[in-house]
Amino acid sequence: MSARVRAPELRGRAWLNTGGRQLTLADLRGKIAIADFWTFCCINCLHVLDELRPIEEKYADVLVVIGVHSPKFEHEKDPDALAAAVERYGVHHPVLDDPELDMWQQYAARAWPTLAVIDPEGYVVATMAGEGHAEGLVRLIDDLIATHEAKGTLHRGDGPYVPPAEPQTTLRFPGKAVALPDGGLLVSDSARHRLVELAADGETVLRAIGTGSRGRADGAADVATFSEPQGLCLLPAHVAEVAGYHLVVADTVNHLLRGVRLDTGEVVTVAGTGRQWRSTVDDHAHDSLSIDLSSPWDLAWYDDKVIVAMAGIHQLWWFDPIKRTTGMYAGTTVEALRDGPLAQAWLAQPSGLAVSADGARLWVADSETSAIRYVEDGVMGTAVGQGLFDFGHVDGSAAQALLQHPLGVCALPDGSVLIADTYNGAVRRYDPASDQVSTVAAGLGEPSDLVLTADGAVLVVESTAHRVTRLAPGALSAAGAATVDGPRHRTERKPTELAAGEVVLDVVFTPAPGQKLDETYGPSTRLVVSASPPELLVEGAGTGTELSRRLVVDGAVPGGVLQVTAQAATCDADVAHAACHLTRQDWGVPVRVAADGVARLPLVLRGLDAG
């Protein structure tokens, strides 16, 4: 049996949600602890926050979750931005600010998110990369409770979480907005789990749709509930008449699409089961209420259907309100930037959609690649953006311009597109005619959406300022735009040194306790490998069913990023009516080719016991 591993001490810049207290591992002794290494841009990390909520509630007297914030983007290193994100996403446990990723390295994390389970005696007993570990965590926690109650090392009682004060504002972290036919505005008031209708001034509240409490109930405006809603899409009048509702809402954390009647405020579920998608990719049409979705973030009417930015699985989907069917539209679920035919394109957390004035082009804010993409004639293209790890605030030629985690786009009548450049706090403009990017407004509070009104004004949803503002007159003119040559950033993580030539990639997977691999519907595992630049791999790129892959690394290429996606299907073992599960993880592994590099690269898909 291998030696038990002591958990490294928790150290960082500051603690949140502790009432100013600096926690140490000694403060957690006697409790089971989960260190959740996350970053607030990452949709998989947000999924884990949602998975942990019921576990935290169930085991409140024995379990302490510690969020260790390990930022990817430069903006995420800002302590005020982190504090806002902790409130926005309802994080109700202590959070350690780890801006330089010191704890990330101490705990040997390789991917966002990573969970490290620490027993009541301060030893790491499991690590888990990715999402979908709720059932495995419950079984492990139950085992730890039994073991440590018998040893007398488990101490029940309240944890160290101290809730912050609740600010009073009209909106709280609004996400998206849509202009209504009567000149008003409907806003997704995301952190308050409701929709708010504003008058034409963008300030006066006319009504709310939803109780303001997290939930998924249908019904009248004062009964219905949402969970962190985002995108809104008005249906064409002839479609709304047949569908029986006027507006579709991306009910993000519920993994649902909801329909809303604007005359009554009545809400009905129109797509999704409420379960998160953990299936296999197909090109079939499905009954919209029978299929799982994954964090739908924005919506647009394009190609005679509702297009859904399915941020949770790095795809675009479609939804037909008349046929009541839905299916995949673009992307393979691999998180990366690759153009081409829609079924082969790669996206990375698409979060904003807008349609050109002539209806020919669908603009996409692809947030994790800090890119503006577009769909036209069945092909995905990239207008601005360079990849998963390159970002900044740089104007000029589109080939050299950089954004930072944009969440929204707005097509203008002249063919250009405005960009809610969220983590730069700016509104940017891309003009396809000149192929240039400029900055038209700066100093904003995480703008997450832009709305063009009937009179030609542009409204900005400033999420962390909790308001909707209007772009200054003249901002869109040539004289009103600025050219910024700001910082260029690249996410730097310690690269893995690989040997040139043959390298074995091993994805280590151990089913959760009580589960076994499931081959009922075909091979139980799937592995997709690619590289950036592609020349890094002479052999080994592509898709297969084995979790071990022989790679051949080109010694003439100094380094790059290996993009690995692995998944495994399991089912409950030795029980009647066994439940099925799909575990999945994406890695972007920085590598450097070195003479003394390793010839084996192990990645862990499911956590293994460390003791």
UniProtKB/TrEMBL annotation:
The residue ranges of the Thioredoxin domain are 1-146
Q: Please, which domain of life does this record's source organism belong to?
A: Bacteria
| Record's keyword terms, sorted | Repeat
**Gene3D superfamilies xref list:** Glutaredoxin, TolB, C-terminal domain
Q: Name the Pfam families for this protein.
A: NHL, Thioredoxin_8
> Known InterPro entries for this protein?
6-blade_b-propeller_TolB-like (IPR011042), NHL2_NHL_rpt_dom (IPR045302), NHL_repeat (IPR001258), Thioredoxin-like_fold (IPR012336), Thioredoxin-like_sf (IPR036249), Thioredoxin_domain (IPR013766)
Under the heading PANTHER family, the entry gives: NHL REPEAT-CONTAINING PROTEIN 2
Report the protein name in the record: Alkyl hydroperoxide reductase
